[in-house]
## 1
Amino acid sequence: MKFNNRNVQISPKAKIGQNVKIGDNTVLYDNVRIGDNSIICNDCIIGEPNFDYYENLESNNYINPDTIIENNSFIRSHNIIYAGSSFGQGLSTGHRVTIRENTKMGNKCRIGTLSDIQGNSVFGDHCWLHSNVHIGQKSTLGNFVFVYPYVVFTNDPTPPSNICVGPTVGDYSQIAVFCVLLPGIKIGKHCLIGAGSIVGKDVDDYQLILGNPAKPIKDVREIKSRDTGESHYPWPYRFDRGMPWQGIPFDDWLKTNETI
């Protein structure tokens, strides 16, 4: 059983909502806040202190930054989430995920098993990261961004250096397996980055990009089904599983969400 209350350590400065389940061998540090109806599975560390704490172990001046996980979240076993991060409602993670300090995520984000988010990054709503994804510091993802396995976001243009600038990915864009995004590049909305691409230049909206180095191939709206002749993209018109427009036309949903 996961929830026997064995070796669970919860700081008196943490705040736990209603109907929260916390697995065995899990630690919640100071200033952690867990929203209602959330599940934190076995062997997790939530609110891991930042490096300042370990650098000054003899000092009593360290205050752990707030770590906020909103309602209806599901954190699977062996996750480490550092202090100073915040997550909207409905966060879902796989196993052995590491999320470093000062990460900000919107609602309904999914982070796959063995993914590594190196902190100081910003995610919109409904970002889906599959397994084994690495996100370098200071990366920015918009809303409804899908990142597939073994993708790497880099952030140092002349390694090693003191410069840190991550990639930016616009709303509804998809990054296929084994892609590498080089530091500081900007990818527009509704883009598709083909598998194995190394992207070193900015990408306009609605572009299919492919290759090493990645180059524009066509407008994604030109990609059509061989069977029906219908356009595959923009993908929200043909895919709604787990999306807020599930069961209704995307355009109808978009009319009430014009800012997305």
Note: The first helix runs from residue 51 to 55.
## 2
Amino acid sequence: MQVKDIMHKGADCVAPDCSVQAAARKMKRHNIGALPVCDKSMLTGVITDRDIVVRGVSEGRDLAKTKVSEIMTAKPACCRQDADIQTVARLMEEMKIRRIPVLNRNEKLVGMLSVDDFTRRGPGQDLLAEILESAAARHV
């Protein structure tokens, strides 16, 4: 099974010069915890709710004036839509990440893959349990 078979197709993005506050509002509106950061449709980073708290709020930044590019995770791990899901699951496990941007062969963002996608459409509970356990371990 390939990533494209279980991923969330399409993804809302924010620009690197978007304010962190605007990005957080977009996350709230769409009930998501991460947004890809794209510059002219090319993935340049990812901003997560955790980035906002750890690199923004905890440092006392003015989130209305702070740009996403200042606190995002630059050069995030990503995968191809035609990648094998078990291979990507192992990558997510090793890197202890819960979400990963999905690119096509032209390096354009085509979606996101999250642990939740494995629960809804994935191949088996054993693989899911490993990913969930590993992703959660990062935050213990």
Note: The chain is about 40% helix and 20% strand.
